[in-house]
Amino acid sequence: MRVAAVQLNSTHEYDRNLEVAERLVKAAAADGARLVVLPEKWNVLGPPEVLRACAEPLDGPALSAAASWARDLGVFLVAGSVAELVPDQEKLANSSVMFGPGGERLAVYRKIHMFDVTVGDVTYRESADEEPGDEIVLGDAEGVTVGLTVCYDLRFPELYRILALRGARLITVPSAFTERTGRDHWEVLVRARAIEDQVFMVAAGQIGSAPPHYQSYGRSMIVDPWGVVLAQAADTECFVAADVDFDVQTEMRDSLPSLRNRRPQAYRWPEDDVQHGSNGAAESVAEPTTSAGAP
Q1: Which of 110, 113, 174, 283 could form a disulfide with 80 if both were Cys (CB 3.0 to 4.6 A apart)?
Q2: Alpha helices in the chain (DSSP H)
Q3: How far apart (Å, rounded) are the C-alpha atoms in residues 2 and 149?
Q4: Does a cis peptide bond (omega within 30 degrees of 0) precede residue 48?
Q5: pLDDT in tens, 173-215
Q6: Lowest mean pLDDT among 7-21, 33-47, 119-133
């Protein structure tokens, strides 16, 4: 399967963002990509009032456009993430939607981990305007199980391990990594998640400046389960693509079966020890599949 990561410099200019996204999605499909991934907040990136003004439900204009691109091009499209208006919820959600080649909505993942941090002299409080999700989500692309994550999730290996144990062969990471953290952490984290969970990673990032203080790192990349970078973007709006071989992944998982060599009965979270005493064992999870099909 050929996959692609689209890199954008989205800003508060909504129409321009959609125009560039459409052009690059079409270019990736013309290059043979069967699965295309857009970055986080691809339709608009800006201050909270802009995100609120441009937020939309799952059938809103940006996601409807993405669905039409998937249908017209006959591709699987992970529409990065958008600020979603969720019924009966005051705060927005940071939602990643996967569409099938018929334009059908296959999966919706709402970002679990909120970016509440201080980077240099800039403080981010994503939770002030967005509600964290609480569901781990997978989609299916012609028998290939795809795990959905967003940006800051990358720092939480538990999520990626569970996705792998539930059958994910490929995990998408639409992002807007800050330039400061990205320099030192982006590639390291993407490659680490690939190696730990023996999955392909398709990490599509934002690049450049956006108001009021965003400076995104870019360097969108596709990484194989051995941690090899198959493709990496230059510092501009573009797409990168690579062929991913799930048979090679199966051979890798069979020859270095780290997922099967887990010993969940020995893993104890600190909170489990408090609740159950020092002998409380961690709950086991079903073993990952090693076939290219869905579990």
Answers
A1: 174
A2: 14-30, 48-54, 61-73, 157-165, 179-197, 246-255, 270-276
A3: 20
A4: no
A5: 999 999 999 999 999 999 999 999 999 999 999 999 998 888 9
A6: 119-133
